[in-house]
Amino acid sequence: MDKKKIQNWGTENAIYLVLIALLVFIVMKEPTFLSVRNLTNILTQSSVRVIIALGVAGLIVTQGTDLSAGRQVGMAALISASLLQATNAATKVFPSIGEMPLMVVLLLVIIIGAIVGLLNGIVIAIFHVTPFIATLGSMIIVYGANSLYFDVIGASPVASFDPRFSKFTQGVFRISGYRFSYLIIYATIATIITWVLWNKTKFGKNIFAIGGNPEAAAVSGVNVRNNLLKVYILSGVFYAVGGFLEAGRIGSATNNIGFMYELDAIAACVVGGVSFSGGVGKISGVVTGVIIFTVINYGLTYIGISPYWQYIIKGLIIIIAVGLDTRKYLKKK
Amino acid sequence: MEEKFLLEMKEITKEFPGVKALDEVSIQIKKSSVHALMGENGAGKSTLMKCLFGIYRKDHGEIIFCGKEIDFTSPKEALDSGVSMVHQELNQVLQRNVMDNIWLGRYPQKGFFIDEKKMYDDTKKIFDELDIDIDPKKKVGELSVSEMQMLEIAKAVSYDSKIIVMDEPTSSLTEKEVTHLFKIINKLRDRGCGIIYISHKMEEILEIADEVTVMRDGKWISTDNSKDLTTDIIINMMVGRDLSERFPPKTNVPKEVILEIKDFTAKQQPSFRDINFKLRKGEILGIAGLVGAKRTEILESIFGMRERETGVIILDGKVITNKNPHEAIKNRFALVTEERRSTGIFAGLDITFNSVISNVDIYQGVGHFLDNKKMKVDTEWVIDSMRVKTPTQKTHIGSLSGGNQQKVIIGRWLLTNPEILMLDEPTRGIDVGAKFEIYQLMNELAKKDKGIIIISSEMPELMGTTDRILVMSNGRIAGIVDTNKTTQEEIMTLSAKFL
């Protein structure tokens, strides 16, 4: 019985075991890895990814997915970059606009993100196109739009940002001498907001009910269509915030920003236990999922493992984590 | 003014293409009473209830609830008005907890946030009132079937329902759980609720019901006080018709034993236990039993779809295993499954595909390419010999009628040239003419010395087509009877043996 208990606990918490094993392996290879600096670096690198993953996670909970996430991030990044160049930048996309207030630009990309999200939602909730196909289409469309915009504004990387923008996204605060990026704060806020939404509001309960058993939700009077629309709009908002921050973090933007981000986000969600069959998922899982992938990138690079090997390890972890997760729900005949 | 009846359904008629499912059926439900609704499968009980809930639109008739005429268009509307249903297939979100399920669609809110405390307290209050001992924070997926049912009942109470329909609520409950359920039902009755209780179990009905309405073939037959009734009277009213003209004459002759099933017990209990029976060449063996008696599970296990704890299959004197359907097909078993839509047809594909799919190996020619000509010939055979009505071989099977689909499926299995043909509810949802053709086919196959096992919930069908009937009760064999020497009454009694 006890053995069974341990086994159950193991399957329930497989993701954390994977993370610990990974860390132990890295530390054994390179004990210097255990430093506050590395920790803050990992958290910083995870921050924008967490925000994007939180957007996708809500969709996966409703049995959806979003292949357009990365391109939506890219769109917000490119627009933010083009509007927030320094007044004295050498090549300015819009020479005539002066200093745009940061929050106005952020709000603008959020509105655009919400509209793209809404369009995804309409195609999925009203025209009943499978989320995979619907967002495959919008992924390509958004990329096309990004590239057109990039062409119009001169087809060269947009850089030399307004110092306020750089400070907002690259700035740090100090705790007893250690530097922490502002990005960690933004990611924490996004995490808390999503946690409250998921766990404390009607909307949260509804999306879990829709994902768990759409029919039961509908029969009980949940407006499935409206809730789906809302969750897709919300995802667009998260990508927009992510894109805004990403542009500032990198320090320049092209039409290629955000390439494959959606896959990282989806992978982090499923590794974190957000089930593709819907109705299951925790914020803590999403965050852990993202951190696992950052640890793989950062930690394995730190101990000198080739990026090609990292791909193989990443892929294996996705399959193993989901395989273990599925075992929880397998119904034995 | 106090109404005499809580709910009146007057002269309800509902027609489906080719079938009159309800023919001017009327029932009246009194306040503070349990009203049993009885009848064989297909008698129209579920259809009547679906008309009440707005899942089906009735063609004629009126429904009066609390003195007002109503015509619900959705189950949600019915729920809000105080009419609720405890389903056979429970409609719950398994991944969420108990209270989330009860208040789904109407969560109490404190401003922007969910009022978890109120939700918990209200749930607890209802549970206490009904003597239900379930933690409101437990995940529904972790509840037992009876607990899920309690949850559904509590949900009905939380909507302040006046009418609660219970469809076969005890089909998978233990005796102790049934006692608890009855306690709850009595409480609901004391609160003034009218309960419509659908069940096949006579003793239960006589114990719990105040009134009993019997339906047959979509018609109302009788409504009586339950104290004036006995099991025999009810069965007579439910059956009440002769079997002539509905079945082809039986001409098959059972010969030596071909299949022996020994000590079959399922791995995942509760399910079937200690199953032993023999099947002869040229014999049609029926399996009878109530919903939840684990009939399908036995056939699935023989066919290698379900794990066994113990059990031996002996075919023609040889011990075989049938670990999976592939092996079973090789051993010349065939299974026509119960759920034609989900496990029978490939709806989007044509008749050719649907005919040859279980037998693809034999169409491989040079270089493992499939031989189209051969497939065409065999499909033609299926269409001709099964009398499938279809314009061409390339027609999608999904566009055929249920009866024609079923004929293609049976044809598919005959192409594998089986020795043992197992049919699980083969005539469900198909019209009378097609049924007759399927009975004929069974008879012909038996004449060719095939062993045939048929599960059916339609008693007359078993009486009219089989040689022997194995009666299942709650996972065990309650008896194997000779079709010629038994009665529907005996089978009904047997199927309740281990409840």
Protein model, in words:
The complex is a heterodimer of chains A (333) and B (499). Chain A is an all-alpha fold and 333 residues long. Chain A has helices at 2-12, 14-29, 36-61, 69-83, 102-126, 131-152, 163-170, 182-200, 202-212, 214-219, 224-250, 261-271, 283-302, 307-329, and strands at residues 172-175, 178-181. Chain A is globular. The longest helix of chain B has 16 residues, at 175-190. Chain B contains 17 helices and 22 strands. The two termini of chain B are 44 Å apart. Chain B has a six-stranded mixed β-sheet, sandwiched between helices. In chain B, strands 18-19-20-15-21-22 form a six-stranded mixed β-sheet, sandwiched between helices. By secondary structure, chain B is of the alpha/beta class. In chain B, a hairpin with a 2-residue loop joins β16 and β17 (318-320). In chain B, α13 packs across α14. The interface between A and B is medium-sized, with 23 and 28 residues.
| Helicity of chain A, as a percent range | over 70%
Note poorly predicted spans of chain A: none
Described by the principal axes of the CA atoms, the overall outline of chain B is globular
**Mean pLDDT value of chain B:** 87
Number of strands of chain A: 2
Q: So what's the overall shape of chain A?
A: globular
Unreliable runs of chain B: none
How many strand elements of chain B?
Answer: 22
Give the helix level of chain B as a range of percent: 25-40%
* N to C succession of SSEs of chain A: HHHHHHHEEHHHHHHH
Largest interface: A-B, 23 and 28 residues
Radius of gyration of chain A, in angstroms, nearest whole number? 21 Å
> What separation lies between the terminal Cα atoms of chain B?
44 Å
Main β sheet profile of chain A? 2 strands, antiparallel
Largest sheet of chain B: 6 strands, mixed
Which class do the helix and strand fractions of chain B yield?
alpha/beta
Oligomer: heterodimer
Number of helices of chain A: 14
Beta-strand share of residues of chain A:
under 5%
